């Protein structure tokens, strides 16, 4: 296929006959790229690039978290919602007779669910697999989890919307990873309604799912150390957490589907986060798959 034919197929009759930048000088190209307002995504990507100059600034910033007050504060960040009721989850049991290769092969997005309730034991396994604490540094007290995080800043927070609980009231809970516990944020059927309204379309059977795992980015944690690039790191981390959850669901015969197409304001409101300093970045719907 000729280039002109491809362009015509992609943009139709509105494709310009001559691309303006084909005839511009290098100076005009420079002006266009550097001084004209561009696409928001492109602008963000450009401003979060790592360059030698940015690297030097990053190194100076990172050193503040290596020792001293900033390092101590980071290692002992008080858990959010500390004043809320705490439900200690049972110890996770991730024993399975499935081989790792089998888990990878069976990992899939499941969009239809049976309506079965989810138990505390199941949530314990899934939450620990997704973002549980694996070890603590005996000197600094810093925690490390099941997923990688740039500088161990852990900007991703995990909320669980229990839609149908076996031994847990329907409601919204916050995962307190350090204690492997849930904080009760609010209960009631309205939580399920709010979460369902946050998802666009009807391609996912949220009504019959057991729970919604909502991942938010507390961006300030990464940006304090890495600047604008910290936002990139937070998004990458959400992907790490989500894949852990996917594989855990595969191990225990549960269905899981990642949802990027949610209404941001609706989901942020349902989680009661401000959408700026902390905002929803990913959600996963989990439940017993429809047989």
Describe the protein's architecture and organization:
The protein is α+β, with helices and mostly antiparallel strands. The protein folds into 2 domains: 3-36, no CATH class; 52-287, NADH Oxidase, CATH 3.40.109.10. It has helices at 3-11, 26-35, 40-47, 52-63, 69-75, 100-106, 120-131, 189-197, 220-226, 229-251, 264-271, and strands at 86-88, 133-136, 143-145, 156-162, 171-176, 181-187, 211-218, 255-259, 278-287.
Properties at a glance:
alpha+beta, globular, 291 residues, NADH Oxidase
Question: Helix and strand layout, with pairings?
Answer:
Elements: H1 3-11, H2 26-35, H3 40-47, H4 52-63, H5 69-75, E1 86-88, H6 100-106, H7 120-131, E2 133-136, E3 143-145, E4 156-162, E5 171-176, E6 181-187, H8 189-197, E7 211-218, H9 220-226, H10 229-251, E8 255-259, H11 264-271, E9 278-287
Antiparallel strand pairs: 1-6, 2-3, 4-5, 4-7, 5-6, 7-9, 8-9
């Amino acid at each position: 296929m000729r280039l002109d034919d491809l362009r015509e197929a992609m943009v139709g009759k509105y494709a310009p006959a001559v691309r303006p930048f084909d005839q511009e000088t290098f100076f005009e190209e420079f002006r266009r790229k550097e001084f004209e307002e561009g696409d928001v995504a492109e602008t963000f990507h450009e401003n979060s690039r790592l360059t030698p100059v940015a690297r030097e600034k990053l190194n100076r910033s990172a050193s503040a978290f290596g020792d001293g007050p900033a390092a101590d504060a980071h290692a002992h960040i008080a858990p959010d919602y500390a004043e809320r009721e705490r439900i200690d989850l049972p110890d996770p049991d991730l024993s399975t007779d499935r081989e790792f290769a089998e888990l990878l092969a069976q990992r899939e997005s499941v969009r239809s669910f049976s309506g079965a309730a989810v138990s505390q034991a199941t949530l314990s396994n899934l939450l620990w697999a997704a973002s549980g604490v694996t070890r603590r540094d005996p000197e600094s007290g810093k925690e490390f989890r099941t997923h990688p995080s740039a500088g161990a800043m852990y900007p991703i927070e995990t909320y669980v919307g229990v839609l149908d609980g076996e031994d847990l009231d329907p409601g919204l809970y916050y995962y307190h990873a350090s204690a492997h516990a849930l904080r009760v944020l609010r209960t009631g059927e309205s939580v399920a309604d709010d979460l369902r309204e946050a998802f666009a379309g009807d391609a996912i059977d949220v009504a019959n799912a057991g729970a919604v795992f909502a991942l938010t980015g507390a961006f300030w944690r990464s940006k304090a150390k890495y600047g604008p690039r910290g936002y990139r790191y937070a998004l990458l981390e959400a992907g790490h957490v989500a894949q852990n959850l996917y594989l855990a669901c595969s191990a225990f015969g549960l269905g899981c589907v990642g949802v990027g197409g949610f209404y941001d304001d609706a989901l942020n409101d349902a989680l009661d986060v401000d959408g700026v300093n902390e905002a929803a970045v990913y959600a996963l719907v989990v439940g017993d798959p429809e047989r």
